[in-house]
Amino acid sequence: MLNWLAENWGTLIVLVVIAALVLFNVIRLVKLKKSGKSLCSCANGGTCGGNCAACAGCAAAKQEADIEERKKCCKGAGM
């Protein structure tokens, strides 16, 4: 067993680093999602990921010129 660990220590270090990065990103995304900062929630229930110009729900809110609806649609996307 010790011989195997000695032969594969580099691979194991890379595995641990990659696993730590994945875990860090998952935790960060969950925290962002809980705080409402991760995705742009559109009026139609979908998400546009901050690209509100390409989102059907955001485009409908823009056409109606309803400021409150636009705020609900693209909160956190600079609108």
Describe the protein in words.
The chain has about 80 residues and is mostly helical. The protein has 2 domains: about 1-40; about 40-79, no CATH class. The chain contains 4 helices and no strands. The protein is rod-shaped, with a radius of gyration of 21 Å. The mean pLDDT is about 75.
Q: Quick gist of this model?
A:
The protein is an all-alpha fold. 62% of the residues lie in helices and 0% in strands. It folds into two domains: 1-38; 39-79, no CATH class.
Q: What key phrases describe this protein's structure?
A:
single chain, 79 residues, mainly alpha, 4 helices, 0% strand, rod-shaped
How do the strands and helices of this protein lay out in sequence?
Layout: H1 2-7, H2 9-35, H3 56-64, H4 67-73
Shape: rod-shaped
Largest sheet: none
Rg (C-alpha, Å): 21 Å
From N to C, what is the helix and strand string?
HHHH
Number of domains: 2
